[in-house]
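ok trying this again, last paste got cut off
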Amino acid sequence: MDTEIAKLLDSNFLTYLLEGKNIDENDVDLLERLMDLLALVNDDNVELAITPLLRYEFLRKFGQNESEDFNKFKAAVEEFTWLDISKDVTDLATNLYRLDKHEADSKGIPKNLEKRKFDVFHFATAKINGIELLSNDKHIDQMERLYERYQAL
């Protein structure tokens, strides 16, 4: 397969795609993005990727009594392309976290990334690999602005 485009799926998009759950049918923007995602799934020029951390984040929600679902979805995530969480990814995630902490401390406000420790790794993975992160998390825009400030340093 000649891949022209790669996209990193956040765990919420994995949930939408594989389980069809947590979809707000009143959220027109989300529905449009999910239709676009379905088109990407069927496009041979697009490669959908995840990381081991995204795999963990998605699969951890299945309890012991859900072993059939767990095994089914475990097999499904194995079909995606895997991106490593490299040293460059951890360096970028660390630097974004440090900048966020510095800005929050200087303004006396809570850190944006404190509650989003996994998401900063997903964001950094996408940036380091030069691909788009497909996510429905509203705070990704905040990370993008933080990243722009970091780049300007």
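PB: full thing came through this time. The radius of gyration is 16 Å.
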